[in-house]
Structures are given as C-alpha cells and as structure tokens.
Amino acid sequence: MKLNEILNKIKKKRKITLFVSIAFLVISIVLVCLGYKYENQALPEPVSMNDLLAKDKLDLDKYAYVDASTKPYLFASYEDNLEKFYFVMDDNNLLYILYMNSTSFNKLNKDNLETTRVYGITEEIPSDLKKIAISSYNELMKEEYLTDTNFKDYVGLMYLNVERSYYDASLYYIGFIFCLMMFLILIIAYFINLFKTKNNLKKYGSLLDNISNELSVSNNTMYEKYNLYLTNNYLIDANGRLLIIDYKEIENVYKYEYRYNGITTSKSLKIKTNNKKTYDILSISLKNKEAEKIHDEVIKFLQEKNNNIVIGYKK
What we know:
Radius of gyration: 34 Å
Helix content: 40-55%
Order of helices and strands: HEHEEEEHEHHEHHEEEEEEEHE
Number of helices: 8
Structural class: alpha+beta
C-alpha cells in the first residue's frame, strides 16, 4: 500500500460525498418548486357552508365560504395557538363557527361590518369544542338556547377553518428542509475533510516519502476495512480524510461509546496527542462482534510503540 493509493481512496470517497450532497441540493430545489406549484394551483369553486350544513352529514375537507355579517365572538382556543374559535352569523342570522387567526379576525371585527365572504376548509366539530360552544353561546344569550340535542340543527356538524390551505404543500416543504439540511451537512463535511487532509499533508510534507515507504513494508498492521494503517512510526487513518500521527506524539488512548437515546450504537478509540488535540479513529458498529478485539489489538500495538501512552480516559 502506497500513500498515493490511500489518497486516491480518500479522493474517491470525497467525490461520492460531493455528488450525494449535490443530489440532495437538486432534490430540495425540485421539491420546493413542486410545493409552490401545488399550493398555487387554481382553487375549486367554493361551496356555501350553509348548503353543506343543510345536508345534515359530514362533508369534510371541502373548500367553502361563509358570508359573515356580524363581528366574530371568541369562545374557545387551544393553548399557545394563534388561531381561535369564533361565532359569526350571516344575513339570515344563521350561526357558524370559524377557526381563524388575528389577521382574519381583524378583517371582520368592525362595528358596521358589511357582509364579508370568508373562505376556508370544512372540518368536523369535536365533542369537546361542541360542549364549549353550547356553554359559551348560552352564556352570551343569557338563556339555554343551544343544547346537545339541537346543536346539529342550529350550528351543524362542521366548522370552517379559515387558516387551512386547500392545497397543503407541507410534505413538499418538509422534504425540502430535510434535503437542504442533508446537503449542508455533507458539503460542510466535505470541506472539513478536505481542509484536514491538506493540513496533514502540509505538516508531514518533508516526511511523506518516508511515510509512503513505511506503508510499502509487508509486515505493517493494517485494518483496510476501517481505513487504518499502522506503520513502524506512524498511525495513518484514512476515514474520509487523511490523518497522520507520529506514535511519539500520542499521550492518551481510550475507548469511547456513541449512544443514541441511551443505547450504545458504536464504539471507537479516542487518541489525545501532545498538542492537546483529540482524534477519533476506528468507529465500529456494535453489531460487529470484532469491535472489542480490534480496539484491544490497536491499543496493545500503540503501547508497544510508545510505552509512555496512558491507556484509559484521562482528564
């Protein structure tokens, strides 16, 4: 194994990382364009909310309208939600429930309100909202006007969600955000690894020929599956970037566990050098039964090369 071969392997991996990151960027652009196109397509012909309620059955997710002629009366809201539930009436004194935010509310909250058409999507009135509506309206009217029995006749089974879009493109935008984040993570990793490789090549510039010659010796300890090469004088890690460490620079080596939600997912070795930097090598999934054996072999090898190395975590 020559140093140039290792560098070529690193370059190949970096190219794959760059290609995948660009693919995520392209997909994110496609998704945001599709989302914009989807939510801005022509709306269907709106249906009168009164006509839908008159059917005496649930007709959900319909694009409907209410011709509001009274100021909205707030009677319920979900905690921390900007949108709230309001009563309004039309010119025929028919009662409706609207779910809207402050902007929509302010358009209707006028003393001399002219009949204003409000558009939204039909949704089912849940049982808890129904109870609050009955109690609130009766309190407003100062008599038991609404009951559980007649509620369907006076208010209906549905309310109008003024803030909900008929064409919901949220899945497109969630996909866009995910792909954009993946692009940023990968492109940042690409440049970080590129920078680290260049720094190591610069640091050992005058010794690169010697290091390459050491790599060519047949009795080197190599873990090619994990991109780790142990020569007579150097530890060489090629996991995404080139890392060269002279054994004489190592002060401390210890095992490290990566956890997710309290569960160990992989193990690696942490190497502290005399310049106070810590490097992570040999990250192996816990599914690999050889992880412990490989880590112990590498620790033993490093101790033999530098008996001043402290094994185990040291502050």
